């Protein structure tokens, strides 16, 4: 599965789960090369175009609900409690806090 990561509705990059132990975030080339386009986060700065992590990047995990709200979302959507990536795709597409949204690609 892949996800488009948008900064104020502009495609900033692609996030995908390569396998069970590797997540990749890659800035979109046009966004990366635009000197006026900001980094999407301090931990995913525009100093390099691609990032890799053995877990879902903490920045994206921070977009997820917590506690009872998270449990209710997982149950309503039929998503396994350990599947943060699927939950991100289902819940971070529109009404998020801040400029970032994430939509299935």
Overall number of structural domains: 1
In sequence order, what are the helices and strands, one letter per element? EEEHEHHHE
Which structural category fits the helices and strands?
alpha+beta
Q: Can you tell me the residue ranges where pLDDT is under 50 for at least 5 consecutive residues? A: none
The spatial strand order of the largest sheet comes to 4-3-2-1-5
Number of strands: 5
pLDDT average, as an integer? Answer: 94
Helix content estimate: 25-40%
Distance between the termini: 8 Å
Coarse shape:
globular
By DSSP (H or I, 4+ residues per run), the number of helices equals 4
Radius of gyration: 14 Å
Largest sheet composition? 5 strands, antiparallel
As a percent range, the share of strand residues is 25-35%
Could you explain the architecture of this structure?
- The chain is of the alpha+beta class and 105 residues long.
- It has one domain.
- The protein is built from four helices and five strands.
- It has a five-stranded antiparallel sheet.
- A hairpin with a 2-residue loop joins strand 1 and strand 2.
- The longest helix has 11 residues.
- The chain is globular.
- The protein starts with a strand and ends with a strand.
Outline the fold blueprint:
Blueprint: E1 2-7, E2 10-19, E3 22-27, H1 29-32, E4 50-53, H2 58-61, H3 67-77, H4 84-91, E5 100-104
Antiparallel strand pairs: 1-2, 1-5, 2-3, 3-4
């Amino acid at each position: 599965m892949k996800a488009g990561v948008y900064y104020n509705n502009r495609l900033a990059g692609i996030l995908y789960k390569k396998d069970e132990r590797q997540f990749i975030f890659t800035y979109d080339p046009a966004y990366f090369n635009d000197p006026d386009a900001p980094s999407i986060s301090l931990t995913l700065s525009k100093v390099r175009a691609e990032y890799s992590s053995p877990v879902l990047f903490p920045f994206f995990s921070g977009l997820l609900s917590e506690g009872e709200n998270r449990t209710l979302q997982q149950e309503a959507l039929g998503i396994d409690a350990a599947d943060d990536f699927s939950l991100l795709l289902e819940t971070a597409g529109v009404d998020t806090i801040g400029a970032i949204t994430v939509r299935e690609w």
